Give the backbone structure.
Amino acid sequence: MRRPAGLLALAMVAAPLGATASAAPVWHFYSEDPSFAFLAVVDESEVGEAEAYYAFSMSCSATRDWTMRVAGLNHVELGAAIARNEPPGFSMVFDGAADGLFSQYYPDLNFGEMWGEWEYVARWSPGVLDPMLAAGTIRIAGPGVDTTLTDRGRMDAVRAFRAACGAIAGG
């Protein structure tokens, strides 16, 4: 009888510790340079950190490719898909349905040394921002990833990012 009570006590102590380890994810727009803009899903506690972890991010630049990154891939699932000769890729699923024009990506694979994990890196076009604003939910799905992105701060961050990228493209 003591064992379950001890486990319950341990769980009650450990749960609040884990719950305070990180803040909730939030969309955030970064831009201190008129030739570059960055949009990311980041833990709220890391918004101002130089080395924050970005689960999902997009960038636009006057001098570089416009890229989208999906981090934290499950390397076992990704490896199994590659072993089956399936091309790695992901879809952005808006409100449960993939958009025919802007949802399917066949990205490069990158090993993020800072966090020791695989990530997808894809080029994107400005048209994807409209379904991102119109959708109630955005899910990223593919070999090694299946996650629904938070909605916290999305509208304001994506609108600011769209305006900054529009200025970069027009300038």
